[in-house]
């Protein structure tokens, strides 16, 4: 684990991001909490007594200049950890906006932080179990998208928000695989987490709007939603010395849902 530096947590005002911030509070790192909602971000920051201090950066992560603002907020300090929780769920926006926020903005964020990663640091990106449900059917097309500007070309495969969400999160998973060598050359790591259904404000909203999610939960081996802290704990673990040989991979944190689906498909 990088001893000094800044831990950046996006989507930190609530849900997964807030849970990750709370778990990082005792690491000694300075926390740089990021979110679109400035008022809610300030409230969250005020509730987290981090030993290394808490700083805030409000703004739209999809804005073209967001990376520059983030680097400026570092003020020359190295990045000890990045836990990137910010994103849109399927019912929150149209397909184009989902692709832009979940994938294009994530690509720009990775590009911005890579040169500033400390040795031993880790970037953890949030994918989704939906990335696994998507499967490899569009991997060739997604892997051809190597710049944020090219992400819009995937719109031909994403006529509705659910498809856009699955493709965007599959893109995050593939991005981690591509970026691992570049991070490794800095002595740093990058990985992704694919959660199932999580008991957060976003998760509860999706559950109400998409009844199929309740069925997925009920048929999973653990038959319940994840608590935000359970998923955040995996992200914090990935940023720790105990995970020092984990990079370029995705970790499912879904209560066994995908195992059940794969088993059912195999008969």
Oligomeric composition of the shown chains: single chain
Q: What composes the largest sheet?
A: 7 strands, parallel
Q: Using only CA atoms, what is the Rg? A: 17 Å
CATH superfamily: NAD(P)-binding Rossmann-like Domain
Share in helix: 40-55%
Tell me the structural class: alpha/beta
- Report the CATH topology name: Rossmann fold
Report the portion of residues in β strands: 15-25%
Count the E strands. Answer: 9
The sequence of SSEs as H and E is EHEHEHEHEHHHEEHHEHEH
Low-pLDDT sequence parts: none
Q: What is the residue-mean pLDDT, rounded to a whole number?
A: 93
Shape: globular
Q: How do the strands line up in the largest sheet? A: 3-2-1-4-5-6-9
Quickly count the helices: 11
**Which architecture per CATH?**
3-Layer(aba) Sandwich
CATH class: Alpha Beta
């Amino acid at each position: 684990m990088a001893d000094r530096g800044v831990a950046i947590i996006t989507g930190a005002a609530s849900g997964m991001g807030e849970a990750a911030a709370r778990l990082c509070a005792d690491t000694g790192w300075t926390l740089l909490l990021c979110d679109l909602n400035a008022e809610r971000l300030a409230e969250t920051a005020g509730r987290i007594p981090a030993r290394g201090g808490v700083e805030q950066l409000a703004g739209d992560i999809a804005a073209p200049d967001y990376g520059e603002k983030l680097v400026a907020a570092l003020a020359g300090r190295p990045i000890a950890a990045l836990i990137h929780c910010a994103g849109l769920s399927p019912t929150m926006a149209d397909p184009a906006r989902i692709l832009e926020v979940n994938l294009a903005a994530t690509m720009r964020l990775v590009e911005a932080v890579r040169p500033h990663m400390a040795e031993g640091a880790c970037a953890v990106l949030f994918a989704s179990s939906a990335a696994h449900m998507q499967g490899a059917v569009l991997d060739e097309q997604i892997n051809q998208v190597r710049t944020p500007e090219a992400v819009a070309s995937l719109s031909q495969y994403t006529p509705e928000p659910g498809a856009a969400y699955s493709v965007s999160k599959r893109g995050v998973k593939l991005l981690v695989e591509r970026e691992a060598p570049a991070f490794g050359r800095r002595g740093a790591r990058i990985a992704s987490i694919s959660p199932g259904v999580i008991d957060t404000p976003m998760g509860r909203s999706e559950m109400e709007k998409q009844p199929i999610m309740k069925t997925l939960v009920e048929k999973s081996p653990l038959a319940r939603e994840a608590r935000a802290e359970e998923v955040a704990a995996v992200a914090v673990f990935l940023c720790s010395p105990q995970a020092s040989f984990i990079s370029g991979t995705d970790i499912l944190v879904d209560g066994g849902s995908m195992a059940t689906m794969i088993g059912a498909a195999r008969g």
